[in-house]
Write a structure and sequence with these properties.
Elements (H helix, E strand, L loop, with lengths): L14 H32 L2 H26 L4 H25 L4 H29 L5 H29 L3 H18 L16 H14 L1 H30 L4 H28 L2 H18 L6 H29 L5 H13 L1 H16 L1 H20 L2 H4 L15
Helix pairs in contact: 1-2, 1-4, 1-5, 1-6, 2-4, 2-7, 2-12, 3-4, 3-6, 4-12, 5-9, 5-11, 7-12, 8-10, 8-11, 8-12, 8-13, 8-14, 9-11, 10-11, 10-14, 13-14
């Protein structure tokens, strides 16, 4: 894709980028509300913690089941249409809850359907948005755009849960009505994007399954992207496992829920600070150097977690992890979007996201099992070792050592 040699306009004046950011920002806040509100409503209806947990799990099932096929479809269909249809579908699914509550009643099977469809629709929107960003953001600004994405997600995770609790207290279906509105706004914002976002021209005679296999195969052959994805998969086990260990250990120690809530809020604030820090880091270091440094820092932070058991000590080093991980996530996303050819963007993003996402519940589940079996300190050491493996993979990857700064992405060609 060719851009004029003149310096591009600032992202703050890039109308299409701002529309994409605004639409998805509201939707992310709404979705983070719905994630909590669904569980609360399920428990209110069933009075069963197990059934409430099932609703949460079904969202993950919908996400995992549709992620790879969705990436293949995104590479076949106009990306703007995908985002508009997905956002509109999300609004319809969510508004069905307040409509049902007003006309008859909300049932447990209804919530199961909403959770499953919510996870499935997310699979389409995210890779389509990544593909759209490549069209509306010049390569030299991709790092800044991804830093804004990171900050957007951190803000949503900070605002969403308390907003859900507040709105749920006013009316049990109000969080879903607000989230439906955010999806409708996202659809309108996407429709207002001026730049065409067509699917890339390529043969479509092969099956959808073959498209999926082709996308995974490209990711396997594209060594810099593959090494980034593999190291991130491993680091996700360690990062999620360590954070879950801290939370469970504090609960076991009798820490009040209000303190745990403040602790989670501090992680959100650290994530926002990390997204602001990321832009400065990306200007000074290459993608590979950032990833290596962050992973080794995370391994060191996890070792410090073993030295003391107070909420302030544990919270400090987990928060530091959220602070620094934004830089690596931003660098990896910017690099992957730039080097992936347009014909592979949907499938590449879906395959990479699938690999990263499936590691998160593994880390959480192992944290609980290990904590019960061997205690906090040995469990934390295990996850520190796993993070060390992720850092080692990134350190010894030759392709990652040759990656440029994100501000220099325009100097390299996409991978083939």
């Amino acid at each position: 894709m060719a851009y004029a040699e003149a310096p591009p306009q600032p992202l703050g004046r890039n109308r299409d980028f701002l529309l994409l950011m605004l639409g998805q920002a509201g939707s992310l806040v709404g979705s983070s509300m719905t994630t909590l509100a669904l569980v609360m409503l399920a428990y209110t209806i069933t009075e069963s913690a197990a059934q409430a947990g099932v609703v949460s799990a079904v969202y993950g099932v919908g996400l995992a089941a549709m992620m790879l096929p969705a990436g293949a479809i995104v590479d076949r269909v106009d990306r703007k249409k995908v985002m508009i249809v997905t956002a509109t579908g999300g609004a319809v699914v969510l508004v069905s809850i307040p409509v049902a509550a007003a006309m008859w009643s909300v049932t447990f099977p209804h919530l199961i359907v909403v959770a499953g469809l919510g996870g499935a629709l997310t699979c389409f929107y995210n890779p389509a948005e990544m593909a759209a960003l490549k069209e509306v953001v010049p390569p030299v600004q991709m790092g800044t755009a991804m830093a804004a994405n990171q900050g957007r997600g951190a803000i949503a995770s900070l605002i969403g849960p308390p907003a859900a609790a507040l709105l749920y207290g006013i009316g049990r279906t109000l969080p879903f009505l607000i989230d439906a509105l955010t999806f409708a706004i996202a659809a309108v914002c996407t429709a207002m994007v001026r730049r065409p976002l067509p699917a890339p021209q390529r043969p479509r005679s092969q099956s959808l399954a073959r498209d999926v296999v082709e996308g995974v195969g490209w990711l396997r052959r594209a060594r810099p992207v593959r090494d980034l994805v593999v190291s991130t998969m491993v680091s996700n086990i360690a990062f999620t496992g360590a954070a879950t260990t801290v939370l469970l250990a504090l609960q076991q120690g009798g820490t009040p829920p209000s303190h745990l809530g403040l602790l989670q809020a501090s992680y959100g604030l650290a994530g926002i600070a990390g997204s602001l820090l990321a832009s400065a880091v990306l200007r000074r270091a290459t993608v590979g150097a950032i990833v290596r440094s962050v992973f080794w820092l995370l391994a060191g932070f996890q070792l410090f977690l073993t030295l003391h058991a107070s909420i302030w000590w544990l919270g400090l080093f987990v928060a530091l992890g959220y602070l620094v991980v934004g830089s690596s996530n931003t660098a990896m996303s910017a690099y992957q979007v730039h080097v992936t050819p347009p014909t592979m963007l949907g499938r590449s993003e879906a395959a990479a996201s699938f690999g990263r996402v499936v590691m998160i519940p593994i880390g959480s589940s192992f944290a609980g099992v290990l904590l019960e079996a061997v205690g906090r300190v040995p469990t934390t050491l295990v996850f520190a070792a796993v993070m060390g493996v992720a850092a080692t993979i990134a350190t010894f990857s030759r392709p990652l050592r040759s990656t440029p700064k994100t501000t220099e992405l325009h100097t390299i060609d996409p991978l083939r």
